[in-house]
Fold this sequence. Notes:
The chain has one helix spanning 2-15, and strands spanning 27-29, 33-35, 52-53, 60-64, 100-104, 109-112, 121-125, 131-138, 141-145, 151-155, 159-160, 164-167, 171-175, 184-189, 193-200, 203-208, 211-216, 220-221. By secondary structure, the protein is mostly beta strands. The protein folds into 2 domains: 2-67 and 75-159, SH3 type barrels (Roll); 165-221, SH3 Domains (SH3 type barrels, Roll). Strand 1 (27-29) and strand 2 form a beta hairpin. The protein is elongated.
Amino acid sequence: xxxxxxxxxxxxxxxxxxxxxxxxxxxxxxxxxxxxxxxxxxxxxxxxxxxxxxxxxxxxxxxxxxxxxxxxxxxxxxxxxxxxxxxxxxxxxxxxxxxxxxxxxxxxxxxxxxxxxxxxxxxxxxxxxxxxxxxxxxxxxxxxxxxxxxxxxxxxxxxxxxxxxxxxxxxxxxxxxxxxxxxxxxxxxxxxxxxxxxxxxxxxxxxxxxxxxxxxxxxxxxxxxxxxxx
Length: 230
């Protein structure tokens, strides 16, 4: 009964979204203000050794495309549910698809060599909202990797089911509609992390720095090709 309750808690934690703070760090909005790194949440671990920080700080810029966008406010909509794009393979603990995308709930999280606190820390991830891919499960632990394939085992409390993505293209436009002929609301540089509100084939509605617009999935990491959710 205790194990079943613990597993149920793990499922709820992974599908919960972050409602406080902006996704990402080091974002400049309208070239004026800085959106700082969010505070750590309860449960974030303190490194036991001196592993290499991951990732290194990335300078990222978000530029408003129109004066009217300067007053845009962050959305408080509920986060999307986990995708079923990999329904053919599921995790033995949560029953969710493997692999699947999640995001970092904490502003600092240790990635360990194995699924327990007795294993050494290989990496310390230091970016709240960073998209991660879950590739394995064991008890309260999830093996995750970033866009470069770097990662390790993290406790489930350090992760969130809210979907985010990181810009990989040198510059990406946030369009008013999922159409390259639509007006551009803002542009974001490589390294910007934003929340994904919904995705359809080739396009995702992304929010970053208070701006919201449609981006092409080929320009971001954190969503499968052809994946859909809302």
